[in-house]
Amino acid sequence: MSIETKLQKMGLVLPEPIKVPAGVKLPFRFVRVHGNRAFISGHGPQNPDGSIAGPFGKVGSDISIEQGYEAAKRTALSILGSLKRELGSLDDITWLRVFGMVNASPDFTSQPQVINGFSDLILELYGPEHGAHARSAVGMAGLPFAMPVEIEAEIQIG
Amino acid sequence: MSIETKLQKMGLVLPEPIKVPAGVKLPFRFVRVHGNRAFISGHGPQNPDGSIAGPFGKVGSDISIEQGYEAAKRTALSILGSLKRELGSLDDITWLRVFGMVNASPDFTSQPQVINGFSDLILELYGPEHGAHARSAVGMAGLPFAMPVEIEAEIQIG
Amino acid sequence: MSIETKLQKMGLVLPEPIKVPAGVKLPFRFVRVHGNRAFISGHGPQNPDGSIAGPFGKVGSDISIEQGYEAAKRTALSILGSLKRELGSLDDITWLRVFGMVNASPDFTSQPQVINGFSDLILELYGPEHGAHARSAVGMAGLPFAMPVEIEAEIQIG
What we know:
3 copies of one chain form a homotrimer.
Chain A: H1 3-9, E1 31-34, E2 37-43, H2 65-87, E3 93-103, H3 111-130, E4 134-140, E5 149-157
Parallel strand pairs in A: 3-4
Antiparallel strand pairs in A: 1-2, 2-5, 3-5
């Protein structure tokens, strides 16, 4: 079963290309492919129409761990949307590195529980072999657009 | 002389696999090997029994630079423990990239002096050729379990 | 036209090797080459003489977005200086990954506008094919020497 079929069966939708807020220029590639390597830029949660999805703010003060988990899951969908547009297919991917950044208050220590929203979905979709990844989950002083989560990654194509 | 023999002569012990605090799920690989590349997840300081090692908190306010240096050295041992379990041997490794994260108060600016605890040990063990690495040493708003240091890395096998 | 000629025409100068403040040891490689891969350590803005360039502090409270943009542009020059010394030529480079760290107050959300100072220069110099890069632009609790910006990167040689 293809990854896209799995997503459909799970009722999950890949968002449209990001709608960048007015006045902001993002002069980089969301996915940078070179040979069979692909570097994935920092992505955040998006609504299906491509707009940046709330809730906004810091996990641990403004929003809950559960909301952060959902934001990380949405960030996975955002990345899969970029990969679909760049690669054409989501099927020939081996996950390697995931860097999970949580917009967090200084006393917040549950970053892993937040970024699990990303890892759980990727592992459910890709399985324990192709979906396995090294990971860090850490607290940032701030993130663009007050997003609660931003994730960058590296994958191998094929 | 093997890396493990060097560690023994230095009186250093590799910790047991991490004992994750109750209720926390870490669904990723501590070392993700793909071909001759290995991505090392964010590790922190451990006690020899695998538990997360204190002191906890922010370098610059809760704990000193010297304690942070020791935490970074312990983090190197934690990573070497994961590499030993994953690769079987510590000997055929070329270090490439080290990303050193310090749980730090906003006015703390001595991150390099903290992460030197990692770099100094790796260079002593692996020498200036195989042990050489690119590095960043930066201040985080927070880290999981209130660890003072977390380090991720990439190596080449062989 | 070579990258160095382009820099000259733009009136831009690559800084001398970094003059590290007294008492600080930086035991890593500013560029770690392995095969045709090169990992670039976290760099910050430098003056032409190699000293770390001000203004210092946090973007969003101590210094402006425009000053942050200039610091990111200077950081690009700092990295190009390191690459020139390590590789001999700046011409056979393909950019892959850029990790842009902004020393920022907790309420700052314009990290992309700051790191654009780096991306805009790299794209102007290298063009949309070799200069294209994946990127994250995120807020840090603190950076060494109170630098406002630190950037690490990965490139392919050739």
